[in-house]
Specification:
The protein has twelve helices and no strands. The chain is an all-alpha fold and 257 residues long.
C-alpha cells in the first residue's frame, strides 16, 4: 500500500509540474521525489494517446489535413500548458548571443523573451504544422511513442548530465531524485520505446532521437557548462520536431524510390 501511495504521489507531482491537467496537490517528500522523473514519460503517453484519438476522429469526420495538422500541433501545447516552450525560447535567446557559458546562463534566467526566441518559436510551430499536414497517415505507435521517448531521454539527462553551477529546476529534481534508479528507469523506458518504434515503422524516429540527444549533450556541456531546466524544455521540443521531420523524410524517400 505504501508503494502504491508513493507512486501515486510521484505521478501527481510530475503531472502537476509538466502538464496543465488538474491533479491533487501533494507535498514533496523524500519518497515521492526519489523516482518521480521515471514517471515523466507518462505525460508523453497521455499526449500520444490523445493524438491518436484526435487523428482518428478527424478521419472519421472527414476533416481536412490542415485541420488535422492544426489539432496535432496545438494538442501538446494544450496538455502541457506550453511549459517546454518557455525553455525552448530562453535557450535560443541564449544560444543566439554566442557568449561565454556564464553569460548564456544569465540569459536563461531572464524572464523576458527575445527576438531569437520569438523567431525560433514561430519556426517550430510552423514546421510542426506543415509536417503534420504533409503526413496523411502515421502508424499509431509513431503518434504515441515519440512523446514518450523525448521525455524518457530528458529524464535520463537530468540524472546523467553535468548540472549547471547554480540552483534551478533541473538541479532541484536531480538532488531530490535517486539518480541511479532514474538513470536505469528512464534508459529502460527509452530502450523499450525505441524497440517498439523500430519494429512498427518508426525506425527513423529512433535515429532522430539519438542524434538529437547527442546534440543536446554537446549543447549542455560545451555551450552552457551544465544542464538547466530550460535546456530540458529545449530538448523535448527539439527532439520531437526532429522525430516528426524524420517521418516526413522517409515518406519523401519512399515516394522517390
Amino acid at each position: 500500500m505504501r508503494v502504491l501511495r508513493t507512486a501515486t504521489k510521484s505521478i501527481a507531482i510530475v503531472f502537476s509540474m509538466f502538464s496543465a491537467i488538474p491533479m491533487p496537490q501533494f507535498a514533496w517528500d523524500k519518497d515521492s521525489t526519489r523516482f518521480m522523473l521515471v514517471a515523466f514519460p507518462l505525460v508523453g503517453l497521455v499526449i500520444g494517446l490523445l493524438a491518436v484519438g484526435c487523428a482518428q476522429m478527424s478521419t472519421a469526420l472527414g476533416l481536412s489535413s490542415l485541420v488535422r495538422a492544426l489539432v496535432l500541433t496545438a494538442l501538446p501545447l494544450v496538455v502541457t500548458g506550453g511549459i517546454h516552450l518557455d525553455g525552448f525560447c530562453d535557450t535560443w535567446d541564449a544560444r543566439a548571443s554566442h557568449r561565454e557559458p556564464e553569460r548564456m546562463r544569465l540569459i536563461l534566467k531572464d524572464p523576458h523573451i527575445g527576438t531569437f526566441g520569438v523567431m525560433h518559436l514561430a519556426l517550430l510551430l510552423l514546421a510542426t504544422f506543415v509536417l503534420w499536414a504533409e503526413l496523411p497517415s502515421v502508424p499509431p505507435t509513431c503518434l504515441i511513442l515519440p512523446y514518450v521517448l523525448s521525455r524518457s531521454l530528458s529524464g535520463l539527462s537530468v540524472a546523467a548530465f553535468p548540472l549547471a553551477p547554480h540552483d534551478g529546476l533541473a538541479r532541484s529534481f536531480a538532488e531530490a531524485s535517486d539518480r541511479t534508479i532514474v538513470r536505469w528507469g528512464c534508459a529502460l523506458i527509452a530502450t523499450a520505446t525505441s524497440a517498439v518504434l523500430a519494429t512498427t515503422g518508426g525506425w527513423s524516429t529512433v535515429i532522430a532521437a539519438v542524434l538529437a540527444f547527442a546534440w543536446y549533450r554537446f549543447v549542455v556541456v560545451r555551450q552552457f557548462g551544465g544542464l538547466s531546466g530550460d535546456l530540458c524544455g529545449w530538448y523535448v521540443q527539439t527532439s520531437e520536431l526532429w522525430m516528426l521531420a524524420s517521418l516526413y523524410i522517409v515518406q519523401c524517400l519512399e515516394a522517390i524510390l
